[in-house]
Specification:
Four copies of one chain form a homotetramer. By secondary structure, the first copy, chain A, is α/β, with parallel strands linked by helices. Helix content of chain A is 31%, strand content 24%. In chain A, β6, α6 and β7 form a beta-alpha-beta unit.
Chain lengths: 335, 335, 335, 335
C-alpha cells in the first residue's frame, strides 16, 4: 500500500513534488491545494491531481473560474499520512497539522526553529527517522551540502568560503528585478553558512551572496581548506561516487548555466529540471590543501529528491538512506 | 514499414526533429550528424540516435573525445528516404542530395529560391506533395501563417501590419547580446512580410522587427484589416477550430512569455517546448474591420510539426493535410 | 527678476527639472522636497538645492540621518510662483495648491482630467498661456507628438499605428522585472493613442505596447498613413527643421538604444540624458503615402524641456513658443 | 608649457582619457586616432580633438563619410611627448613608439611583459618615475589595489580571496551576451591575483571570476586575512583617508550597482562615470582578523585617473604621488 501525501501549496516546489512523489512506487499524491484558479491550478487538474481550495474563503474563486475543486484543505488533511507544506514562508499551518497529529515537511524558506530538524538526505537521513516535523533546507544549502558533506567525511574540512552568485527571480517570476545590476547581500557572512550548520553543526563555513539578473540557476564559487592534500582527480572521483552530483565540461561546450539547462532539457526530465548539482570538472582545482570549484544549482528542483527521501525517513519506510536515494532517483529519472 | 529519415545537423532544430520524427508511427531516424563532439553529440548517443560525423575531416575529433560514430554523412545519406537539413544556412549540401537523388527539407534560415517551394502545413501542404526539395519557413513566418491563414480564407484580409518583437538569442546561446538594449531592424519593411508571401502570395502584409534582450520567445503585435466586420469571439472561435494555436489568458496569470514557457513546462512536452502559437484571448480586440492581437512564438520548436508534415507530403504518405497534422500532433503530445 | 519654482518630489523627473530650470536665465529653483533621507536627498544638498521635508511627519527622518532641511512643503509653497509636482501619481496635492492660489504643473503619470489641459510645447504652447494647472504628457506621448505633430500640420495624417516597445524599469529601479520575458499590454489599443489626442484631438492614432527587459530607452515602431505622398528625404528634412528631434544612423554604428545612450554620454549632457527624440535616418522609409520609422525615447528626460516651456507659457513669460523652446534648449545644452 | 599627449585609439578608454587629460592644467591632447568614421569619431570632432586616421589605409573611409581628419598616426606621433595606447590588445605598436623614442602607456588588456612595469598610482608611482613604457593595470586589478594596498601597508595581509562578479559587456556593446546565464571563468585561480602581484609582488591573493548579464559595473566580494585584528570602523577610517575610494550605504537606498551608477550620474561627472571604487560601508565586516567587504568597479573609468598620474610620473612632472593624485582628481571632479 502506498503512503498518502498531501501537497499544501501547488506552486514552484509543490508541483514538482507532486510529480516526483507520484512517480514513486510507494507513495501517492492524494490532493494539492491552491489559493487561486491560475493556470497552474488548471495544470493540476490536467495532470490528474485532485485540487482543493486552500481555505473556504477561496472556494468561490474557483467556482467563478469554472474550475472544479474536491473540497478544501480541511477535507484533504485528515486523509493524508504526511503533508508537504510548500506554502509561502511563515504561513503558520504548523498548529493545524499538530492538532490533526499529522507529520509535515517544510521547505528551506522557513527557519530551522520551526521544526528543530533540518534535512539533507546524505548528511542526516537517520536523524529524521520517525520524526514528525522536518524542514528540507533550501536549494543553495542543499547544493552546498551535496558537495561538501563527502569532502567533510572523507578528507576533513578546516574551513569553507563560498560566494553564492544567485539568480534574482525564477523563470516565471516577471515582477522581480533587477534587469541590469548586481546586488550584494550586505549582511555578511550571509545566512547560508549557518544554514549548512543546521544540518552539519561542526562544518566551518562562511558565505557571502550577490544577486544577479538571471533566472535559471544559482552558481557557487567555493574554496575549501581540506584537512589533507588531495588531487583534483581524487575529488572528482569522490563526487562521481556520490549521488546527485553531475559533471559538466567547459571543453564540451558547457560554459555557463545556460548550457547546463540546455543539457537538462536534452535529458528530458520533467520540466527540463536538473535534480543534481552540476560541477564543472575542468573547474575543479587543488593547490596544496586548498580546493577550488564551481557548482550550479537548479533552484527550482534540486530539493525535490531530498523531500521524497524525507518522507521515507519520517514515515519509517526505509532505514537505509542510500536505498531510499536510489529508489527516489530511479523514478524521477536521475541516471 | 517506416520511412527512413536522416538528420543532417543535430542542433537546436535537428535534435527536436529527431525526437518528433522518431515519435511518429510511420517514420524513424536512421542517423544524425554533428561536426563536433559537444555535449549535444553525447546526448544524441544517450537518446539512441546513431551518430555520424558531418565529414571525414571531423572523425578524429570524435575519436579523441572518445565518442563513438557510425561513420560519416557519406555513409548515412544513401540509406535515407529523406534528409532534414538543419545545418547553418548556406552550407550548400543541395548538390550532394541531388547527386544521390534524395529528397530534402531545409529550414527557414535558407532563402526561398533554394527550393522554390516554401511550406506551411495548413496553407500549402498539397503543393509539396511529391516534391523533392522543400523549405519549411522560419519560426516567425510559421507563427504569422498559423493565425493569418484561417483569417485569410474565412474572412478575407485587406492588409496586415505586424511588429515582431524578437528574442535576441536562444536560451543556450550565451555569446549573443544585447544585455540591455532594444535594436530595430532598420531594413523596413522587414523580410518577414515577403516570407509569408512565399507561401501565400496574395496576402498583403508589412512587417517591422525589433530585437530585445530575452531568450525564450518572440512576440508579435498584429493588426489586421479584415474584409468584413467580425467580433473577437468569432475570431477566437475560428482559431480554436484551427490546429496548433493555443490560447492563454492574462486573467489566469499568464501575463508574459515567461508564464507561457512555464505553462509549456507544466504540459510536460519534450524540453518544455511549445509547438503551438500562443494567443492571448484577452488580447484579441476588434474595432470595426480592424483586428488586434498578440501572439507568442516558441522559436525553438513551432516549426517542428510542420517539418513532420512536410515529410508526409513529399513522400506521398498521406494526401489529407488535416490527417497528417492530427497524426503529427498526437505523437508529439499536442492536445 | 527670476520666477521662483518649487519642486515637489525630487526623484527621477524632479531632479532633472531642478537642474534644467536652474540653468535657465529667467527661472530659479527655490526648494525641493523629499520624503526620505536617501542618497538623492543628499545629492540635492550637494548641488545646492534647499531641501524641504515633504511633510512634518518626515522631518524626524532627516534629523536622524543628519541631513539638514529648510522646513517642510508648507514653508516652501508660499514662496513659489509655480510648483512642479513630480510626486507619484494620485498624491492629491491639487487642493493644497488651489488653496494657496499657486500654479502647478504635473507629469504624465496623472490623468488628463486632473488639469483638463495636457501640454506639448510644439503642439499647444498657446493653449497653456496663463493657465493655472497643466499636465505635461508622458515620455512616450511626448515622443509621439514630437515627430507626428509636424507631419500632421505639414502633410496631414489619415491614421497612425504605433507599437511602443517599452523599457520595463528605470536604470536605478532594481525591484522591477522582468529579467527575461516580453509582456504585452493586453488592453488594446493602449492608452497612448488617446493620450496623444488629449493634446491633438483630431489625430487618428492607435497604439499597442509591450514591455521588454531593458532599462535605458523606449523604442517606437511607427507607421503613418499620410494624406499625401512624400519621400523619406522630405520627412527627414521636415524633422531636421523641427526642434528636439535628433538623427542617428545605423551605418555610423548606432544600431540600438545602447549606442544612442553612449552618444548621449559623449555629448556630455547632465546625467548622460537625451532630451531629444532619436530617429534613425536609415530607418525612415516611405511606400506611397505610408511612412515607416523607428524612434527611441529617453524616458527619464525627454519631458524636461517641455516642462520648462510650460512654465514660460503659464506664467506668461514668453508668447512665442519657438522662442521659449530655443531658450530652454540653449541652456540645457541641446545643440 | 603643457606636455603633449597623443591618444592612439579613441574608444571606451581613449575618449575618457582625452577628456581627463585635457582637463589637467599641465597636459593637453594634441590628437586622437580612429580606424573608422563612427559616431565616436564624430564626437571627437565635436569635442574639438584633432582627429587622425589610425593608418593611411583608413583615410578614404573618413573622406567618404565626410569626416575631416588631420592626417594619420604617422603625422601625430612625432609631435607627442607621450602616447596613450588605447588600441585593442596585441596591436603591436610598441616597435613604432620605440623607433620614434616616444614614451607610451598601455592599458590592462595587455600582458605585464609588454612593459615589465605595471602601474597603480598609490602602490608604485615612484617605480614608474622616468620610465619609457608603462602598463596601467585593468579596471578590476586597479579596484583590488585601491582597497588592498592601504590594508597591506597599514595592517599587513596574510591572504586575500576575492570573487569577481563581472559585467559581461560594456553598456554600448550590444553584440556580447549572455542575456540570461552565469558563466564561471574555469581557469582557477583567475588571472586577477597574479595581476595584482605584477604591482605588489608580495601580496598573497587568489581570485576566481564569474561573468553575469549586466553592463554597468563589476562587483567584488573580498575576504582578507589581516595580520592583526581591527574593527570595521578602523578599516572604514583607513579607506576614508585613502584617495579614490567612495562609500555608499545600503541604508540610504544604494542597494546595488544600479543605484551607484545613478549616484554617479547625479554627481555630474563626465558621462556619469565613477572614478572611485565604491565600497558599501554597511557591507564591511570583521570577524577576528578576517575582513569581509564588497566593492563595485566602474569598468569604463576607474583607470582614468591612474593613467593621468602615470603620465606625470613617467615625464617626471611631479615627484610626489599624492600631489599628482590630488591634482588629477581635482580637475576631473573627484571630491
Amino acid at each position: 500500500m502506498k503512503v498518502k501525501v498531501a501537497i499544501n501549496g501547488y506552486g514552484t516546489i509543490g508541483k514538482r513534488l507532486a510529480d516526483a512523489i507520484n512517480a514513486q512506487p510507494d507513495m501517492e499524491v492524494i490532493g494539492v491545494t491552491k489559493t487561486r484558479p491560475t493556470f497552474e491550478a488548471k495544470m493540476a487538474n490536467l495532470r490528474g491531481f485532485p485540487l482543493y481550495a486552500a481555505s473556504k474563503d477561496f472556494v468561490s474563486r474557483f467556482d467563478e473560474a469554472g474550475l472544479e475543486t474536491q473540497g478544501t484543505l480541511d477535507d484533504l488533511l485528515p486523509e493524508a499520512d504526511i503533508v508537504m507544506d510548500c506554502t509561502p514562508k511563515k504561513m503558520g499551518y504548523k498548529e493545524m497539522y499538530e492538532k490533526l497529529g499529522k507529520k509535515a515537511i517544510w521547505q528551506g524558506g522557513e527557519k530551522h526553529d520551526l521544526t528543530g530538524l533540518s534535512f539533507n538526505a546524505m548528511a542526516n537521513y537517520e536523524q529524521a527517522y520517525g520524526a514528525q516535523f522536518v524542514r528540507v533546507v533550501s536549494c543553495n544549502t542543499t547544493g552546498l551540502l551535496r558537495t561538501l558533506y563527502p569532502l567533510y567525511t572523507e578528507y576533513g574540512i578546516d574551513n569553507v568560503l563560498a560566494v553564492m552568485v544567485r539568480r534574482s527571480a525564477d523563470p516565471w517570476d516577471t515582477k522581480r528585478g533587477p534587469i541590469n545590476a548586481i546586488e550584494p547581500v550586505l549582511k555578511v557572512p550571509s545566512h547560508h553558512g549557518p544554514d549548512v550548520q543546521s544540518v552539519v553543526p561542526e562544518l566551518n563555513i562562511q558565505t557571502t551572496a550577490v544577486k544577479v539578473p538571471t533566472t535559471i540557476m544559482h552558481l557557487h564559487s567555493v574554496v575549501v581548506d581540506l584537512k589533507k592534500e588531495v588531487s583534483s582527480e581524487d575529488v572528482i572521483g569522490l563526487w562521481k561516487a556520490t549521488p546527485r552530483i553531475i559533471f559538466v565540461s567547459g571543453s564540451e561546450g558547457i560554459k555557463s548555466t545556460a548550457q547546463i539547462m540546455e543539457m537538462a532539457r536534452d535529458l528530458c526530465r520533467e520540466r527540463g529540471d536538473l535534480y543534481e548539482i552540476a560541477v564543472w570538472d575542468d573547474g575543479v582545482h587543488t593547490v596544496g590543501k586548498k580546493l577550488y570549484y564551481y557548482q550550479a544549482i537548479h533552484q527550482e528542483s534540486d530539493v525535490v529528491p531530498e523531500n521524497v527521501d524525507a518522507i521515507r525517513s519520517m514515515l519509517e519506510m526505509e532505514e537505509d538512506k542510500l536505498k531510499s536515494m536510489e529508489t527516489t532517483d530511479k523514478y524521477i529519472g536521475v541516471c
